[in-house]
Every structure is written in C-alpha cells, then in structure tokens.
Amino acid sequence: MWLMGTTATHRGPVLIGGGELGRCPTRIHHSRFNDAARSTSAVVERRIAEGRRWEETVVAHILERLPAWTMISSTDGVFDRTAPVVIDPTVRAHSREAITTVLLRAGVPLIFGGRISAPHLHAVGAPDLLVRLDDGYAPIDIKHHKVIGERGVPARLAPADQLQDTGGSLRTFRSERVIDLLQVAHYWTLLDSLGYASARRIAGIIGSEPAVTCLWVDLADGNPRLLDRYQTALDDAIAVVEAGQDQPGVPLVPAVWRGECRSCPWADLCRAELEDVDHVSLLPAIGAIETKHLLAAGISTTSHVADLDTGALADEFEIPDEAILQARARGAGTLLRRTGADVTLPNTAVEIDFDVETYRGVLYLAGLLITDADGSRFEPIADWTGTPGGERRVLADLFAFFDNVASSDDAVVYHWTGYERTILREAGERHGLSLGSAPSVDAWFDAYACDLWSWTKERLVSPSGYSLKVIAPLCGFEWRDDDPGGAQSEIWYSDLLKGDASRRSRLFEYNEDDVAAQLAIRRWVRARW
Ligand code: SF4
Fold first, then answer.
1. Under 8 Å CB-to-CB from 167, ≥6 apart: which residues?
2. Beta strand pairing call for 362-372 and 381-382
3. What CA–CA distance (Å, rounded) separates 279 from 275?
4. Mutate to test the pocket of ligand 1, among 20, 27, 31 (most ligand atoms within 8 A of CB)
C-alpha cells in the first residue's frame, strides 16, 4: 500500500548529489519520494534567487580579466586549453559531464559549471568550479553566506585573481558551515576516483565576504577528519535512498525537529507529525544528540520530560534542566517565571518601544512607539529612497531623538535583541554621525535602553524559543499581517523600491506591530506578577 503523496518507484542505481551530504535524512527521503506539494515560501524562493545571482556575480568577477571559452557540446573541439572554459548553463546533465571529461583530460586551468559522477561510489556532483593546481584538480563551490569565522577548521585565503594560491594567509572556516565542506569533499572524492584530483586533498569555498575570496581547506583536517565525516554522510544518504526505493511511503529515519527545519520545505508536514506525538525534539533545548539519548532511554514525549525532576539522567546522560523547564512551560501553554527571578521592569514616566527595519543592512525605518500618561502613539522615522542620503537622514533624526531621551532622565527605550544597537553603530560609522549624549552607540544603549529579549530570556521560560514572534503571541498579541517576519519585510521593501507604493503601509503596519508587541509583553508581565 502506498501512502498518500508518495511516488511509486523501482530500484535503480543510487547517485547522491553534493547538496544532499549532511542533510536531514528525512528531508532527503521526502525530496526524492514524496510528491506531495512542498510548502513554498517567498522568503526561501528569494534566498535561492539571490544565491544564483551571487554565483553569477562571482563567476563574472573571476573572469573579468580572463578571456574564457564557452562550450555547449563535447564535440565543439575548438577551445584553448590554456584558458578558462565555461560550460553553458543550458547544457543538459549528460552532455555537461561529457564536456567536463574532455576539459579535465585537456587540463584547462578553470572549468565553470562542470559535472562529474562515479556510479560505483553512488556519487554525482556539479561543482561550481574546478581549478587545476600543480598536481591535479581541486573543486571550489560558491556560497551565498559568509564562511570566514572564529571557530572551525583552519583555512588559507586566496584572492579571486589568484585562486590557485592555496598557501595564503591563515583563516578559520566557520564550524557551523561544515556542510559546505562535506559537499566539496564529495567533489574531491569524485575527482579522485576519476584520476584528476590534486593529491593534496584540498577544496575551496567562496563565500559572500565583501571581497571575493576563496577559503582553501585541507580535507584531511578536522576531528574526525572531514573526508571521514563525508564518507559517513555519503553512506547515510545512500542508506536513506535505498530504503526509500523499497518503501517510499515511510522515511528510513523519522523526523526530528532541528535547526535545518526552519528553512526546509517539509517543515509543515514534519511539524504536524511531531506535534501529533508530542515529540521530545520539539523542545528547543533538545538537539539531535539529546534526542538520541532520550529516545534510547524511552523518553519520547515532552510531557514525559516535564514530569522529570531537574538534574534527571536518561541513560547516563544528564537531561538539560532548561529542557525540563521548557517542557513544563509547553505543558502549561504559557511563559513560566524562573524560580526566584525578579520580574520588576524599569519604572519610568515614558516608555519607548523601538525597532528598526533594514534592507541589506541599510537602515530605512526606525519605529518608535511612545507610551506616557497620554497613551501610546507611533512616531516612525523613515526614508523610502533607498539611498545613502536617506539612511543618513533617518539616523540623524533618530540620534537627535535619542539625545532628547537622554536629557529627559525619565524615559527608557526598549528593543528586542542586540540588532538595533549593531545597525545604529554600523550606520553611525558609515555616515560619521554620533550621539551627543553618549561617547558611543553602545554606551548610549547601556545607559538608556533595555533589551527586552535578554530581560525575558533571563527571567521567563518559553516553551518554544525567544523570538518576538513566539513570545508576544504567548502574551496575547497578534500581528495584523498573517505572514510577519524580517525576511518577508525585505521582500516588501524591495517591491517598494521597484515601484509598488502599497508596500509602504504594509511596512509601517508591520513595524508598528513589532513595537506594539514589545509593549504587550510588558503589559502581560505587569498584569501577571
Ligand atoms: S522539516 Fe526538519 S525533520 Fe522534516 S525533513 Fe525538513 S529538516 Fe528534516
């Protein structure tokens, strides 16, 4: 019997693509075997489109000073083996692979848009770029996120015009982006199986850092080694797909709520399934490893966790106290006060709820909800021109307003997370503007503002995280827009810049609701305790 929404399939050769390595196994299964409509999101679609545009930008940048050949067929015959070659994006997979083989054999220095496969390894891949080094080829992939970080594996930096320089200055590849490295390890392994790989086992990632640069990583680094992690990820993916071919209606690995779920097209499906069974992974303090321990100890539901005493062990694993508190808050369906927490809020005559809207890091709207003895009024400062001059005007007016707040001595500004202070600090530096009432933006926030997000997190336990969109509804607040979110608001602003004037009122409403949500949280707290 096939379950609804599944695709009947037959056994065939299993080929795992680079983008599947390190992915949630349930996602791999659904992507291949579930033909039910996956949920689409304008935010995710936009992210994908921006990623494509970034790839094109990087390729154009690399080729700026390098004349390149474009190929559409492996029988084109005429190309300069000393020049880069771009395989035309319209070329189909089979021909793409044939062209790549010709180019690898010829030893061209750079191959853009290649495809390689090794059925005996169950592997196929489309590396963005293959670079010929002195002892063979190395793959590079282009990512639309930053990859240089503080913690992770060591990496060497190469500028875009010297990609072959693999011994540049030392940097660190962001540990949270390790999935990128599994992908390029996949491509290196494919090259190796075909006899073209550099023996040095290196691969590169070009991230979205301001200057186009490549981070070269030694795939033998890491603990466990990146190549070993890759092999495990490949084996896991093969097992998922082979099992799916036999039983497409049932994923080999059941869903477990995880960070990846937030951007997964199957999130609605999995969330509903997990909510149905009150799955333990729905607790934010329970990650994938904790879930494994708890399930092994027979603790599968959040209500079971809620019944445990803090400090409880599951299978010799200490369950985080925070998870037990979260489970209790979930059972109660509300925010719980932490034991002994002082929930007194600052007591001032004037309260100002503040929230910024930005587009690509540039400030265009500063929402201010001012509450005093006369009630609450929304007084936004905005500029819709999308120009540096517009941002400067918003910032100058806002700094003047903040200087007034400082002089009043009986007002406090509330905001949610450290985003506002970061944006103002960076914009101030960009425009050479500063506050008159404090030596720096950070000093001003320390003196006159309260981060309501930190305040809430320290004193209250939430069943499902601390985003404003989670906390405010628990305090009875609802947004007027049925799809509120920062990423969504960037889409509206982009529409506005393209001429859709109706977006302006939507952005004002959204921003006004964000500040009103903060006020609603404080009212709820004050009414309760
Ligand atoms: S929603 Fe989460 S558990 Fe479900 S497939 Fe996606 S990543 Fe996996």
1. 156
2. antiparallel
3. 6
4. 27
Among the atoms of ligand 1, which is closest to the Cα of residue 24?
A: 8
What's the 398 CA to ligand 1 centre distance in angstroms? 42
Q: Separation of 489 CA from ligand 1 center, angstroms? A: 25
Domains of the chain and any CATH numbers? 42-64+115-230 (no CATH), 277-333 (1.10.150.20), 350-528 (3.30.420.10)
Secondary structure (3-state) at 529: coil
Tokens 């404003």 correspond to: 468
In tens, the pLDDT along 467-496 reads: 999 999 999 999 998 777 777 888 899 889
Query: Nearest Cα to 234, choosing from 118, 147, 79, 122?
Result: 122
Banded model confidence at residue 312, pLDDT cuts 50, 70, 90: confident
Which tokens sit at 335? 């925010």
Quick check: 313 and 319 in contact, CB under 8 A? Answer: yes
pTM for this predicted structure: 0.85
Residue 334: count of CB within 10 angstroms of its CB? 15
Which residue spans within 360-510 are E strands per DSSP?
A: 362-372, 375-378, 381-382, 411-415, 449-451, 460-461
In the chain, what is the straight-line distance between the N-terminal and C-terminal CA atoms, in Å?
Answer: 55
Residue 67 to residue 309: CA distance in whole angstroms: 68
- Beta strands across the sheet bearing 129-133: 69-71, 85-87, 110-112, 129-133, 136-142, 202-206, 213-218, 152-159, 170-174
Measured torsion, CA atoms of residues 282, 287, 293, 297, in degrees rounded to the nearest 10: -10
Q: Which two tokens stand for residue 442?
A: 């950070």
**Closest Cα to residue 173, out of 184, 183, 181?**
181
pLDDT tens column, 40-86: 778 788 888 889 999 999 999 999 988 888 888 777 667 888 999 99
DSSP assignment string, 426-446: HHHHHHT---SSSSSHHHHHH
Partners of 460 in the β-ladder: 337
What is the DSSP code (8-state) at residue 120? Answer: G
Residues pairing with 157 in the sheet: 215
Where helices occur in 63-213 by DSSP H, the ranges are 93-106, 178-194
Measured by CA distance, the residue closest to atom 7 of ligand 1 is 261
Q: What are the distances in angstroms from CA 231 to CA 24, 46, 193, 235?
A: 16, 32, 14, 6
Distance CA 393, CA 349 (A): 28
Phi, psi of 156 (to 5 degrees): -115, 135
* Token pair for 494: 């982009």
Using DSSP bridges, classify how beta strands 85-87 and 69-71 pair: parallel, antiparallel or unpaired. parallel
Residue 308's SS3 state is: coil
* Atom number, ligand 1, closest to the C-alpha of residue 251: 5
Distance from C-alpha of 259 to C-alpha of 288, rounded to nearest angstrom: 9
Rounded CA gap, 386 and 307, in Å?
Answer: 53
